[in-house]
């Protein structure tokens, strides 16, 4: 019986075999890799992954789809985690591991931020997402798409927009263009050098009113000396400042305040 896509789970199943082959080609998995697939759905990407991998972890919230996987032809090669990915304990996976998936567009950002907590254990991530989100993730300063999401992720990851995927490659077709992004965590030294609480606070303040100058949005939040140490003029606006400069400001505040 055909599975009825559920809107509450943001289900759009990738069906285009060329896209799936390209996804796998960019991923270049090895038989020795430990891979976690988020949202395997009807198993379109799962099949391609199992052409290379002897076993695979899958995280699926839909109980009907999880049952299909348990009784399907690959059941003996899958470890099925029937759970909301935002509640999944990635510490259950032997590190290091890779993460892939066609993420539900309605919760893609929360998933990306949740995975940050496991960056020490993750080799890389390759996801299908709404193209608009990926454009924001990889945008450079002064671009219209550059914002809080760009800064928060670029500080911790090296990212690349691989290719676009049109709506007709899915069943049912989404109303938006999709794309594939590759994310590689920066070195542990780089990530640990970021005072995360301060960093998050100053980035949120900067973009709280992005049309205003930093001297307004950072008033009472960031000392003038911290901005100067990062080469930032307070007449600038949030979208003009690189992720590296935001990190410098946070580091100055962590050591001087």
Automatic annotation (TrEMBL):
Predominant localisation class: cytoplasm
Enzyme Commission number, as recorded: 2.1.1.182
Residue intervals of the Ribosomal RNA adenine methylase transferase N-terminal domain: 19-187
Residues the entry annotates as binding S-adenosyl-L-methionine: 12, 14, 39, 60, 84, 102
Pfam family of the protein (one): RrnaAD
Claim: Endoplasmic reticulum is one of the keywords in the record: no
Group of enzyme by EC: transferase
InterPro entries linked to this entry: KsgA/Erm, rRNA_Ade_diMease-like_C, rRNA_Ade_Mease_Trfase_CS, rRNA_Ade_methylase_Trfase_N, rRNA_adenine_dimethylase, SAM-dependent_MTases_sf
Molecular function terms from GO: 16S rRNA (adenine(1518)-N(6)/adenine(1519)-N(6))-dimethyltransferase activity
Keywords associated with the record: Cytoplasm, Methyltransferase, RNA-binding, rRNA processing, S-adenosyl-L-methionine, Transferase
Localisation per UniProt entry: Cytoplasm
Presence of keyword Transferase: yes
Catalysed transformations (reactions): adenosine(1518)/adenosine(1519) in 16S rRNA + 4 S-adenosyl-L-methionine = N(6)-dimethyladenosine(1518)/N(6)-dimethyladenosine(1519) in 16S rRNA + 4 S-adenosyl-L-homocysteine + 4 H(+)
Function recorded in the entry: Specifically dimethylates two adjacent adenosines (A1518 and A1519) in the loop of a conserved hairpin near the 3'-end of 16S rRNA in the 30S particle. May play a critical role in biogenesis of 30S subunits.
Entries under HAMAP family matching the protein: 16SrRNA_methyltr_A
Family listed: Belongs to the class I-like SAM-binding methyltransferase superfamily. rRNA adenine N(6)-methyltransferase family. RsmA subfamily.
Name of the protein described by the UniProt record: Ribosomal RNA small subunit methyltransferase A
């Amino acid at each position: 019986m055909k599975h009825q896509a559920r809107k509450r789970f943001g289900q759009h199943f990738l069906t285009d075999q060329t896209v799936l082959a390209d996804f796998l080609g960019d991923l270049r998995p090895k038989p020795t890799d430990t891979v976690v697939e988020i949202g395997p759905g009807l198993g379109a990407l799962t099949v391609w992954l199992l052409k290379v991998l002897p076993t695979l972890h899958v995280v699926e919230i839909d109980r009907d789809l999880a049952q299909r996987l348990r009784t399907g032809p690959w059941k003996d090669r899958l470890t099925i985690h029937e759970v909301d990915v935002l509640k999944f304990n990635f510490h259950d996976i032997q590190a290091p591991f890779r993460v892939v998936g066609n993420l539900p567009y309605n919760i893609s950002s929360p998933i990306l931020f949740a995975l940050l907590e496991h960056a020490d254990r993750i080799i890389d991530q390759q996801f299908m997402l709404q193209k608009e989100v990926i454009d924001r993730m990889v945008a450079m300063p002064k671009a219209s798409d550059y914002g809080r999401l760009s800064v928060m992720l670029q500080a911790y990851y090296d990212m690349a927009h691989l290719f676009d995927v049109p709506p007709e490659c899915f069943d049912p077709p989404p109303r938006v263009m999709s794309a594939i992004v590759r994310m590689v965590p920066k070195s542990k030294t780089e990530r640990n050098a970021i005072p995360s609480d301060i960093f998050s606070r100053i980035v949120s303040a900067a973009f709280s009113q992005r049309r205003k100058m930093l001297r307004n949005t950072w008033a009472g939040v960031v000392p003038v000396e911290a901005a100067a140490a990062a080469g930032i003029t307070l007449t600038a606006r949030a979208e003009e400042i690189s992720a590296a400069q935001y990190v410098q400001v946070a580091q100055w505040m962590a050591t001087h305040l």
